[in-house]
């Protein structure tokens, strides 16, 4: 047999968790046609002796919904071996959206997902090539992408489409729920793999208002999930909050036979050791017949923030009230930050999660005081004889509220993180790729897992880690033709060097539309990335030009047409 592409000499790790074996991989017409032994000539042959050959990684928690319309390469995910991505998480997206609501949807993405409004407006333009969700999927498919894309149907644009601005204010009527159910079925028939939503108290949109999904009742959630139950496919992804608890998740999962995955179970989310109760609960729910799976992260949750938009503090009521007041009367923030009484409030009125938060803060960027950059805030304050909170706000005011601070919010206890990522009832995810671009970069989670938790910490074997990056998330999200190397399957492949694979240091670049900035990380040890049999990355460089026909496929209902 002849091949389009042959990969020789590598250790094949097929994604199942089974032991790897040295052999060849033969690819023809976009599919794997030989594994182990691939005799015969090939148009292109790559010798990867000493390297690992695995399925392309499947990233189930991204926010590329807008970015995919201007960045078909979906950078930076393929840099780190990702060949399939899921968008529409947390119920956010850009469809369905009426023309009169476009600005509100973009302002919501700006506030809740840390996206640059300038980049969104420049990238999407004034005329969008879609209004409904089926039209959005058609637009994505027509434009093409470097990697495969599956989409969740987002609750926030759905509610906005049906209810308008009142979606941020109140519960829906039964007639409105019926209209949403109709659109839900339409989206699932068009190819959505499930339904994304959020009830998180930290998810506030434009003008500090709760995102629309936070105003949904338990009954509304139940009725929307029932559509997937009737269709006997799909899953629910939810960012957790008090209004729709894990108990409710278990109820709808059992009732409709629908998996539910929630974001996110992180170390210190429930205080020291608090994660264990949630792990025990997940195990109990599984035994009871409910498929409720927490998403966990293998990286510390480091946020870079400014006091112009201190997203991470929005869970505190007085901070959210300040955001709403500043939206109505610009300048309110600056006056509050200069007020000694307000500063004392920030010092004292915090949730348990933020007790002595300044001890975990680093000064990332402060043009007025360059000598303090990359210093811990507490150390800089001690040097200057200041209180840490006062120094942070002084730096903010001295730099037009644009001074940046980096804070380890959660997942900084490695012992607890190890327990989370190795638990059989969790799923490793939460890259958030495409969101919070100027605040964090966890799109490199896959290479971090392989470098830190496999090579350095030896918490996983290579086979176990690859299984958690490929077959397991694909199966959980109903993606039926990805995440596995086998004859007859689509040839999504990543070749990496287990001795060197890992993420590089974070770097701030200005490559988004309108010159907006973001944090990126180059990968080391990723030799080749192949999507549907086409080589898209080699030696840390894109092989395809921006205007080429790209090999990624839209995975309608979890698989390519």
Briefly summarize what is shown.
With 561 residues, the protein is an alpha/beta fold. The radius of gyration is 23 Å and the shape is globular.
Tell me the fraction of residues in β-strands, as a range.
15-25%
- The parts where pLDDT drops under 50 for at least 5 residues are none
Number of helices: 17
Oligomeric nature of the chains: single chain
Q: Which structural class do you get from the secondary structure elements?
A: alpha/beta
Percent helix: 25-40%
Task: Tell me what you see in this structure.
The chain has 561 residues and is α/β, with parallel strands linked by helices. Helix content is 31%, strand content 20%. It contains 17 helices and 24 strands. Strands 1, 2, 3, 4, 5, 17, 22, 23 and 24 form a 9-stranded mixed β-sheet that branches. Helix 6 (218-231) links the parallel strand 9 (194-198) and strand 10 (235-239). Helix 6 (218-231) runs parallel beside helix 7 and helix 15 (445-456) packs antiparallel against helix 16. The longest helix is centred in the first third of the chain and has 17 residues, at 174-190. It is globular and about 75 Å long. The mean pLDDT is 95.
């Amino acid at each position: 047999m002849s091949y389009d592409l042959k990969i020789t000499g590598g250790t094949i790790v097929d994604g199942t968790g089974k032991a790897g074996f040295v052999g060849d991989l033969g690819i023809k017409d976009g599919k794997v046609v030989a594994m182990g032994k691939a005799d015969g000539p090939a148009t292109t042959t790559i010798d990867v002796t000493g390297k690992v050959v695995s399925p392309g990684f499947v990233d189930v928690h991204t926010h590329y919904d807008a970015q995919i319309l201007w960045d078909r390469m979906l950078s930076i995910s393929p840099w780190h071996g990702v060949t399939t991505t899921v968008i529409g998480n947390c119920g956010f997206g850009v469809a369905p959206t009426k023309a009169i609501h476009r600005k509100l949807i973009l302002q919501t993405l700006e506030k809740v997902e840390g996206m640059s409004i300038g980049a969104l407006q420049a990238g999407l333009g004034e005329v969008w090539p879609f209004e409904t969700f089926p039209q959005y999927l058609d637009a994505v498919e027509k434009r093409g992408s470097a990697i495969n894309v599956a989409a969740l149907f987002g609750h926030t644009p759905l509610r906005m489409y049906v209810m308008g601005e009142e979606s941020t204010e109140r519960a829906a009527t039964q007639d409105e729920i019926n209209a949403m159910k109709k659109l839900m079925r339409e989206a699932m028939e068009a190819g959505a793999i499930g339904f994304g939503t959020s009830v998180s108290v930290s998810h506030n949109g434009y003008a500090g208002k709760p995102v629309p999904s936070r105003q949904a009742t338990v009954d509304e959630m139940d009725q929307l999930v029932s559509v997937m139950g009737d269709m006997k496919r799909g899953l629910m992804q939810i960012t957790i909050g008090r209004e729709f608890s894990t108990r409710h998740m278990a109820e709808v999962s059992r009732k409709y036979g629908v998996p539910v995955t929630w974001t996110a179970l992180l170390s210190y989310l429930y205080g020291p050791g608090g994660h264990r109760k949630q792990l025990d609960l997940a195990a109990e729910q599984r035994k009871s017949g409910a498929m409720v799976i927490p998403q966990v992260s293998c990286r510390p949750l480091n946020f870079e923030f400014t006091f112009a938009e201190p997203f991470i503090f929005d869970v505190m009521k007085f901070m959210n009230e300040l955001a709403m007041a500043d939206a109505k009367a610009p300048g309110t923030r600056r006056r509050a930050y200069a007020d000694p009484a307000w500063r004392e409030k920030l010092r004292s009125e915090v949730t348990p999660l933020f007790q002595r938060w300044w001890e975990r803060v680093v000064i990332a960027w402060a043009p007025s005081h360059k000598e303090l950059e990359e210093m811990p805030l507490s150390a800089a304050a001690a040097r200057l004889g200041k209180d840490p909170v006062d120094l942070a706000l002084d730096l903010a005011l001295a730099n037009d509220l644009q001074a940046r601070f980096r804070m380890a919010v959660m997942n900084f206890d490695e012992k607890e993180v190890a327990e989370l990522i190795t638990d059989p009832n969790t799923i490793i995810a939460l890259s958030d790729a495409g969101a919070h671009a100027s605040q964090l970069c966890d799109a490199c989670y896959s290479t971090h897992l392989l470098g830190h938790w496999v090579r350095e910490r030896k918490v996983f074997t290579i086979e176990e880690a690859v299984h958690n990056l490929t077959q397991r998330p694909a199966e959980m999200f109903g993606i039926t033709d990805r995440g596995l190397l086998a004859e007859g399957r689509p040839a999504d492949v990543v070749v990496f060097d287990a001795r060197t694979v890992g993420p590089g240091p974070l770097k701030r670049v200005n490559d988004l539309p309108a010159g907006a900035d973001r944090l990126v990380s180059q990968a080391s040890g990723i030799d080749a990335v192949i999507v549907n049999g086409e080589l898209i990355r080699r030696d840390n460089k894109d092989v395809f030009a921006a205007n080429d026909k790209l090999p990624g496929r839209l995975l309608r209902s979890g698989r390519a047409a």
